[in-house]
Structures are given as C-alpha cells and as structure tokens.
Specification:
40% helix; alpha+beta; Serine Threonine Protein Phosphatase 5, Tetratricopeptide repeat; OB fold (Dihydrolipoamide Acetyltransferase, E2P)
Length: 335
C-alpha cells in the first residue's frame, strides 16, 4: 500500500462517533497510563521554512509516506484524548477528515491545552500511515512540525472552510493580552501565559514600552518551563534599549545560569549589583554562580548538602553542575 491512496475512507460522522465513544470512555473510567510506544519507522522532522512548502489536501495523501516539501492546513473538530499519543480528528478546508496522532508532546501539559477543539494548525511534511486498528491516520512525532494559528491570523482569516467558518476570537489589546498572560501565570499555566504574551507582542497597535513589558513577563514564563534560550532572547532584546533594567539583568543571568554558561551569568549579575548593591535576588544568584564555577572548574562539591537536598523529593533535580577536568586533544592511531 505504500505510495498509494487508501481505497476506503471512514465517513466524517462515523469517524467522529468512534472518537467520541473513546473520549467518553476516557472521561468515565480510570485513565490508562502509558508513556512509551515502540515504532519500527523513524523519520526526521521538517527543516524547511513554511514558505518553501506547498499546501496539499487530505485527499492528496498517499499511505506510508512522509510528504516532503508539503504541508496540510487543518483544524480540529473534536476534543482530544490521550493514552500514549494525543489523538484527535481534523478536517481540511475541503471538509475531508482524518485522525491525527501527536507523539512526544510535553508531558507536563494537559492534552486538552495542547490541541483543544477548534484549533487551527499547519502540519509540515505530514506522515500518513495505516493505523494499528486497520484504518488510516496522520502521525506527527515532532512538535516542531506543528504550527498553530488563531482564526484571526491573516494567513487563515480569509480562508473558506466548506463546513463553516472557524470561531473568531475577540481581538484583544496589548494590555488585555498582558492581563490574560498574568492570569495564566498566577495559575501556573506557563505555556498559556507565553502564548498570551506573544499574542500581545504581535498586536497591530502596540508601543515600545508595552513590547518591553510583555517580553519581560514572557521571559519569566520561559524560565519557569526551562526555556532558557527564549528567556535569554527576550532579556537581551530589552537590555539593548534599557541596559539598567534590573529585572531583565536578573533574568538574563538566570537564563545563562540555566544554560550552564556561568561566566556570562556572572557578568550579568555583576552589572545588576553595580546598579543595586543591596539587591537580595542578585546577591543570592551571585552566591549560586560562584558555587557552580567552583564545581565546574575545581570539582569541589558539598556532598552532604546534595544528599539532604535529594531527600526532599522522589525525583530530585539538584542545582549542581558537572566537573570538567583537563582535556588534551591528540591524534589516535587506528589498529
């Protein structure tokens, strides 16, 4: 069947009915917990920018094929469910439907937040396969192959969907997106906060001070989910225009710290303390940075402290770094 179109497609109503029955079972019963699934086929993620890809429809797909150089525009029409993969049903603008399975998504996020009903997305270089149940499905192993859009986005705003126009969300102001992001942050929904701040930054009418504030807030949300590169990018952008911004300097140091670039972290925290010598957070960060530099350069560890820290959690994440000893580069003769 490889390279051929399926001989039979499950009708829309039946596909939704099957999914909803499974979805109801998930809600009514104790959820089945599983974290791994073995696959015999491995493919690499899309590395091409979207502008290099050609849009196709679900009816153009052929089985057991990764459609290189192509992309699908889709929207979800059901609530997702999860065992190992996140499973949902999607349609394209022509009204054709298919099952979509997402793997390797962030385990700390609810699947209902990752891909809620009525989500609009682009799936780059889609992999179309025969499912274990004998039907067909789209499989996405790489989170970077999915790009989500709001219905207000200019790329999809004027698109005609055969089954009806997607729900248009109210367009908020930058200040309203900031408030929304702050509400998510307080609820510890950091990914949703990042999206809200990002939507605010993309607002059509926004001042430079508002952009700076939204990026500052977003940097803190990035730090919470260990997206250190994102936090660093936001802080460095702010510091170009506001070199004495205390919060940006502190979070920049935290980002470098998270990336284990302690020398740069030290530079940033020294800048902070030069502006505000009594800054408690800066002083605490300085102590941590110096300790990590000692560990990395001289192999000096407080093992008793590490043992006590490890006892506090069943899955401890110790705030230590690896000792990097002397390394000599030399040629090796092969036998």
């Amino acid at each position: 069947m490889q390279g051929k179109k399926p001989t039979h497609r499950i009708p829309r109503s039946q596909l939704i009915q099957i999914h909803d029955r499974q979805y109801s079972y998930e809600n009514d019963c104790q959820p089945l917990v599983a974290h791994e699934r073995i696959t015999s086929f491995v493919y690499s993620p899309c590395t091409q920018p979207l502008s290099y890809l050609q849009r196709i429809s679900l009816t153009d797909l052929v089985l057991e094929t990764v459609h290189r150089g192509k992309y699908l525009l889709l929207r979800t029409i059901v609530h997702p469910k999860k065992i190992v993969e996140i499973k949902t049903v999607v349609e394209d603008p022509n009204g054709d439907v298919e099952v979509l399975e997402l793997y390797n998504q962030n385990p700390n996020r609810s699947h209902k937040d990752i891909i809620p009903n009525d989500s609009i997305m682009i799936l780059k270089e889609p992999y179309y396969k025969i499912s274990a149940q004998g039907g067909t499905s789209l499989r996405c192993d790489h989170p970077t192959d999915l790009i989500f859009f709001d219905a207000n986005n200019s790329m999809v705003q004027d698109l005609t969907w055969k089954t009806g126009t997607p729900r248009i969300h109210k367009i908020l102001t930058a200040a309203e997106y900031k408030t929304l992001g702050n509400d998510y942050f307080k609820k510890r929904k950091f990914y949703e906060a990042i999206k809200a701040y990002s939507d605010g930054i993309s607002s059509s009418e926004i001042s430079d001070p508002e952009i700076s504030l939204l990026k500052l807030n977003r940097s803190q949300a990035h730090l919470k989910v260990h997206h250190f590169e994102g936090a660093l990018s936001d802080c460095q952008n702010i510091l170009k225009n506001e070199p004495n911004n205390i919060k940006a300097l502190y979070r920049c140091a935290k980002a470098f710290y998270g990336l284990e670039n302690y020398d740069e972290a030290l530079v940033q925290v020294k800048k902070l303390l030069k502006i505000d010598l009594k800054n408690v957070d800066g002083q605490r960060e300085l102590t941590s940075i110096v300790t990590r530099i000692e560990e990395k350069g001289k192999g000096r560890y407080n093992f008793n402290q590490m043992i006590e820290e490890a006892k506090k959690s069943s899955t401890p994440r110790l705030d230590n770094t690896s000792y990097v000893g002397p390394v000599q580069i030399t040629e090796v003769s092969y036998i």
